[in-house]
Design brief:
About 95% of the residues lie in helices and about 0% in strands.
Length: about 90
């Protein structure tokens, strides 16, 4: 085998290896894009979940406030007539 044939064979092997690497990089790039898309989707879902949790916390605090208000109003309705004798 002559030197030029060896160089041609080496060049062919390098080009073949480069094509294989390009295919792998393309595959990795597609996977990375897929992961980025899923992360964006999860970020949106987490934001929605945070909004729901915040809404539930506010609503439950309002329910607690309402309950205490009703307890105080009931206690006042019982105590005031008893104190003033009416």
């Amino acid at each position: 085998m002559t030197e030029s044939e060896q160089l041609a064979e080496i060049k062919e092997l390098i080009e073949k290896n480069n094509r294989g690497l390009e295919e792998r990089f393309d595959h990795l790039e597609a996977k990375t894009d897929d992961i980025n898309e899923k992360l964006k989707e999860m970020d949106v879902r987490f934001r929605e979940f945070d909004i729901r949790i915040e809404t539930y916390q506010k609503a439950s605090q309002q329910v607690v406030n309402l309950a205490f208000s009703l307890i105080i109003a009931t206690a006042a309705a019982i105590v005031i007539p008893a104190v003033f004798g009416k």
